[in-house]
Amino acid sequence: METRRIDPVNCSVGRALSVVGERWSLLIVREALDGARRFGEFHSRLGIAKNLLASRLDTLVTADVMRRVPYQEPGDRQRFAYELTEQGQALRPTLLALLEWGDRYLADAQGPSVVVRHHPVDDASACEEPVRVVLECAAGHSHLAPEDVLRTPGPGARFVDAS
Q1: pTM over 0.85
Q2: pLDDT exceeding 90 applies to what percent of the chain?
Q3: Is residue 148 classed exposed, middle or buried when 0-12, 13-18 and 19+ CB atoms within 10 A define those classes?
Q4: Which stretch of DSSP H or E encloses residue 66?
Q5: DSSP string, 6-37
Q6: Distance CA 32, CA 103 (A)
């Protein structure tokens, strides 16, 4: 008896990984979220080879995760800074989830090297408590356990026959 299953090739996870699935790409986004804008800043913060950095920045710009913004210092040629687009900014929860997982399973014995805290721009409501990623359904049920989450076909699902 043949059953149908969702085609694993038609997958948003796979598409996302084609853009940011390489180690340096997410580290570049992390540094941009922390304020890096110029090629030299990314290079010095990450210690990445310049040719690899240029390639990863090109990929992120092509995918609309970052945009190039021209600037020119007096007496120098025009250069480009890199800014996160809306798509790039939307990767923050992904990076926080990876950080949380890494802190839980891979941190040094002394603990995590970074703690992300609640600190809104308007300072008035800053509580400074650690931030965590929480799974929540559209009905508002939060703190879902991994076993309480099920992948189901979406409107763009394609199916393959499975024996």
Answers
A1: yes
A2: 75
A3: exposed
A4: strand 66-71
A5: E-TTS-HHHHHHHHH-SHHHHHHHHHHHTT--
A6: 21
